[in-house]
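hey so i finally got around to running the thing on that chain from the lab meeting. sorry it took forever, my laptop kept dying and i had to restart like 3 times. anyway pasting the input first so we r on the same page abt which one it is
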Amino acid sequence: MTGRRRGARTGRGWDAKPPAPARPARPGDDGTGWSGPSDGEAAEGAEGRFAAGGGRRPAGRFGSASGDGPASDDGSPRAERAARRQAERDPHELAREICLRQLSVRPRTRSELAAAMRSKGVADEVAEAVLDRYDEVGMIDDAAFARAWVSSRHHGKGLASRALGQELRRRGVEAEVVTEALAELDDETQAQTAYELAVRKLRTTRGEPDAVFRRVVGALARKGYPGGVAVRAVKDALAARSAEDAELAELLDPDLFDTPEQ
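ok and heres what got predicted. didnt touch it at all, straight out
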């Protein structure tokens, strides 16, 4: 028996044929004999499922499952339902939610909370009931608010009694409560704060001596300091810098400057 010639075609050598590409699956290859619906049958099946489901189409990319159009459009059924649910909510619950949201930012006066609820359409009687309850439990306290405001704004911003009183009145704090809060800020404390402000302001103000004096006094007056307090603070700050500035301070006549009184 002749031996096999070296290099003969064996299916594994250099001349072996490459394997045939895999044949795409054809209907019925899974052994069930079912080839799937045709395009027409698939369309009929989808329409049948749509009819069986009560006319609800699958949710599309730009629409809701009900086919009502985009859910985020103004005037859409979803927006109308949300507005209706809002209107049907307990008004006291809505009022409390508004107050809590306001108080989570910073303490508020009773007047500020009432204004916030009014802007959202809360009835005055509902707002009053909620605010009375918050008063009872200590969640709002205009007297405590005013005291904290005076302390914080004076030491943080250097504001004097006049400016602090204006800010509190704009926030709806009653005049009597404002007066009591400002009583804790004595004249000596305000004079010391005015002096410290003048020292800082003189470091950064440039110009002729009378112009510098005027600008620094004006800066203190805008913070609510009376003219006499502002002038004295600037003169003392000048005198503390050097002997030359002390002589200059004595030469400056406060009556030549417009220093508004409280």
